[in-house]
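Now for today's protein:

——
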Amino acid sequence: MTVEKLTVAHLSAVAELETVCFADPWSENALELLVTDAAYGVVCLQDGCVMSYGGVLWAPGEGQITNIATHPDARRQGMGAAILEHLITVAKSRGCEQLSLEARVSNLPAIALYERYGFVKMGLRRGFYKHPTEDAYVMCLSLDNTKN
């Protein structure tokens, strides 16, 4: 397993992963944002294939994690954690004070992962997700206090 910065060459595989993992997947065109200066994307490769990816949008002093997705056949192998660790490291190197994200309230494995890295539930967005409609927890990580 290797973790590396997302490039244009990865975009079609990441778009395919989106369709496997999400009911409302990002298009390949939308994913292009993750290879611009306004954002950052990372992939986890296994035998040269994209098995997991994550992205973050930048704002002054903070980052908003867009998605972290792992192919169903590769879950529970540490890839999501590797992606999250990488995004935290990059955010710290950019001087970010905080990372935030939304997580489906039913996505207990993701919530457990985020909490393991110090994210705290800060609020609830009612009806945030569609297909199916579901609430989202807003979770934040203060990078000032992160020990990872």
Q: What stands out?
A: The first helix runs from residue 11 to 21. The longest strand covers residues 49-59.
